Amino acid sequence: MGEWGFLxxxxxxxxxxxxxxxxxxxxxxxxxxxxxxxxxxxxxxxDEQSNMICNTKQPGCKNVCYDHAFPISHIRFWVLQxxxxxxxxxxxxxxxxxVIHKENKMREHMNTxxxxxxxxxxxxxxxxxxxxxxxxxxxxxxxxxxxxxxxxIGFIVGQYYLYGFIMDPRVVCSRAPCxxxxxxxxxxxxxxxxxxxxxxxxxxxxxxxxxxxxFYLACLRSARRKQxxxxxxxxxxxxxxxxxxxxx
Length: 248
Description:
Blueprint: H1 5-15, H2 20-44, E1 53-54, H3 61-69, H4 74-112, H5 135-163, E2 170-173, E3 182-185, H6 189-237
Antiparallel strand pairs: 1-3, 2-3
Helix pairs in contact: 1-2, 1-4, 2-4, 2-6, 4-5, 5-6
């Protein structure tokens, strides 16, 4: 699990800048993917090629049959999936950290200059450093969700075309240097099938959470626009209250 430490620490920072659904998605990623992959799946697939038995002793035949059945091992495929699916979220984190740094500089400038000299004020963060997901940040956040959802679906489809969703205990191969059509048998196919289905279910849950979060953010954006519109209408109808209770 040590090799996942850096990625986990970065994703942990995203939690404080995500919605409730986004935090659930990160929890699913941590517990049901990274931890399960490190704790159990690597041990199940550790004997994948060495324990494959073929009905021939021809040198090199077992290697080409294994390569034919598994162009990329399930473990490496899932590792790539985690990295690719996490990348849009990490790009969003980079944007958030840039905004925080920029607005902290603004606050330092505000503390050392008079109000007449201040051109811009912090828009996304408050005095405590809490980030509000709105404007460009909201657009970046929604884009990251859409991309990670598309990547998730792409990996599900890719897994289906590469090996399917059930581990077949028998591999039939007729590639050179095999002298004839060879049959090879995998170790622990049932246990591996359980892991494959489990990871598939987690991927589907991730897609559903992404769809839910997109709808949530769309509703949030619509509500904010409606609130601004109502406020503008109220100010237009009561111009004398422009600096009064309506703005508050």
